[in-house]
Amino acid sequence: MKNYRRDFLRKGALLGLSGFAGSFIGKENLQHAEKLTERLGGIDKFNLPSLSYAYDALEPFIDKETMLIHHTKHHQGYVDKLNKAIENYKGSIYLPDLFKSISTLDLAIRNNAGGHYNHSLFWALMKPNNPVQRNEPVGKLYEAIKMKFKHPDAFKNEFTEKAMKIFGSGWCWLIFKDNELKITTTANQDNPLMDVAPEQGVPILALDVWEHAYYLKYQNKRADYINNWWNVVNWQRADEIYSEALGQ
Ligand code: MN3
After folding, report:
1. Sheet containing strand 180-187, strands side by side
2. For residue 248, how far is its CA from the centre of ligand 1 (angstroms)?
3. What's the gap in Å between 189 CA and the centre of ligand 1?
4. pLDDT value at residue 9
5. CB-based contacts of 222, cutoff 8 Å, min separation 6
6. pLDDT (tens digit per residue) in 32-49
7. How far is the CA of 187 from the centre of ligand 1 (A)?
8. Mean pLDDT over residues 221-234, rounded?
9. CA–CA distance, 242 with 148 (Å, rounded to integer)
10. Considering Cα of 34, then 57, then 222, then 183, what sign does the dihedral take?
C-alpha cells in the first residue's frame, strides 16, 4: 500500500497534474495529503474526503446548513454515483486519467467524477476567516496575479463577472495554461482537466456556482455569495498549487 501510494503521487507529479495531486500535498502535512489523494484517486473505490474545518467554520460567509448539506448530501451523492458508474469500467480510475478521455466515457462517469474532484478541490481551497481579516492572494500567485491582472481587485472583479455570467449550473476557475493564468468557466460538473473543457489547464482556484452552493443563505443573489466567498478563499493553498504547477 505504501509503495502504491508513493507511485501514485509520483505519477501525479510526472503528469504535471498539480491541480489534482498538488493541491493536497502541503509540505507541512504530507500524511494528511497522502490520505486525501489516495481517497480521491480511488484504488478500488472513491470516498468522501473529510473537511479540515467544521461545518460552521466558514460562517458568516458560508452558512453551516449549506456546508452540511453540500458536503454530506451533494458531494456524497457524486461519490456514490461515481462508484456505481465505474463498477464495470476496466480502465484506470485515477481521476486525471478519466478526465483526459472523458469525452469517450459515460455521462454518469463525467458528471460524478467531475463532481467528486471539483468539490474536493473546492473544500480544500476554503478556510475559516473569523475574526474577519483582509484576505488577499499570497506568494508567487500574488505576483503572478499582479503581473497578469495589474491588481488583485481587478482579478477578483473579472473572476466575479465571469462567474456571474454562467448560465445555469457550473464552475468558475483560475487555471494555469501555457505559462499563464487564465479565468475560465465550465458547465455542470465539467472541469479544466477534462478533454471537453473549452480551456484546459491546471485548476488553481475553483468556485461552485450551482444554486445548491448558496441558495439557502443567499437565495437568487449569486453576486452576494461570490463577494462573500472571497473572504474564505484559502490563498495559501492556491499558492501551493500554483507553485507546484510552476514546478517550483
Ligand atoms: Mn456543489
Report:
1. 180-187, 170-177, 202-208
2. 31
3. 8
4. 38
5. 163, 164, 209, 214
6. 444 445 555 555 688 898
7. 12
8. 98
9. 14
10. negative
